[in-house]
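Structure, all four chains, one model.
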Amino acid sequence: MESNILSGETERLSASLEDYLEAMLFVILEKKGVRAKDIADRLSVSRPSVTSALQVLAAKRLINYAPYDVITLTDEGEKQAEKILSKHTVLQEFFTEVLLIEPEKAEAVACKIEHIADDALVERLRLFSRFMKENAESPEEWKKEFMRYCREHKMPKK
Amino acid sequence: MESNILSGETERLSASLEDYLEAMLFVILEKKGVRAKDIADRLSVSRPSVTSALQVLAAKRLINYAPYDVITLTDEGEKQAEKILSKHTVLQEFFTEVLLIEPEKAEAVACKIEHIADDALVERLRLFSRFMKENAESPEEWKKEFMRYCREHKMPKK
DNA sequence: CGGAAAAGTTAGACATGGCTTACAATCTTC
DNA sequence: GAAGATTGTAAGCCATGTCTAACTTTTCCG
C-alpha cells in the first residue's frame, strides 16, 4: 500500500527495471564500469530515461548511485542482475539447442521472456535442455530428425 | 505517425488488448454472447477498464461496439483472437506435455508468454511438442526418464 | 407499471515508462 | 586553463492502462 518510489522495499521488479539492471551487469562484465551512456546505447533508450531508472533502482537499494558519480551494483543488485542474466542464458540455449532457432531470433525472444518466466519454469527448462543433450541415445540424431520433421511440416504461407 | 486512438490501423496489439480480445472469444465460445461484465470478471479488472479497452478495440475495427449495445467480434477481431488463443494452447501443451509442469502453472505462464512469442516461435514449439509425441521411440518412456532426471537434479532450496 | 438492482459509462486520478528540450557538470585537448 | 564535446540531469509532456466515485441505462420482477 504505502510503497512508492522512495521505499526501498523488495517488490518484484518491472520488466523495464530488470532490463536496466541486466544491462548494467552486462556492461560491467566486459568493461571496468558502467556509464549511463552505455546503458542508453545498449537498451536503445534516451539518456534521460536511464537517469530516471537509475533513481528508482537506487531507491530500491539495488545500485549505488549519486548524481554525476560512479554507478555500481549493490550486493543485492548484483544478485538480482545475475539471476536475470542466467535466465536469459537458459532461454537462449533452449531456443538454439533444442528448438534449433537462429541465435539472433533466440536472443530477441529470450530478452522478453526472461522477465516473465518464473524461477521454477526456467529451472525446468534448463533441466530439459540438459536432458536432451545428455540422455538422447544419439544427441545429434534427434536434432537431424527434428529438422527434417520441421521441413516436412513447413508452414504453407506468410 | 498519424495513427492514434481513432485510426483503424493494424498495428500490433498490446498485451493488454490481446487479453481483452482473447477473453471475449473465450466467453463467446462457452456462452451465447459476451457482456462487459464477463470480461471484467475473467480478467479481474474493473468495469471501466473494460469500457476503455472496448473503445480502443472498436476504433481498431476488431469488435462491433456501441454504448449499451451488444458486443461482437468482427471477422478481423475473431481472426486475431483465435490466433492468440491458439498460441495459448500450444504453449500450454508444451508446458504440460513436454516440460511436465502442473496445468495451473502452465496456464499462468502461457497467459503471459502468448503475447510475446512471435508466430514462428510458437509454430516451432508446436512442431516440437508433436515431434516429441510422435517420434519418440517410446512416447511415455522419455517422460519417465525426464521425470527421474528432474528428481535427481532437484534444486536444493527455495 | 414502476422501482431497485445490475450493468455500463464518464470523469478524473494515478503509476509507469518512455520521450524531447534545455541546462549543468565533466572531460579532452590544445 | 579555457573552449568545445561529451555525458548527466531536470522539467515537462505524452501514451498506456489501471483504478474509484458517481452517473446513466437497462433489466428484472413484484
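Chain B has seven helices and two strands.
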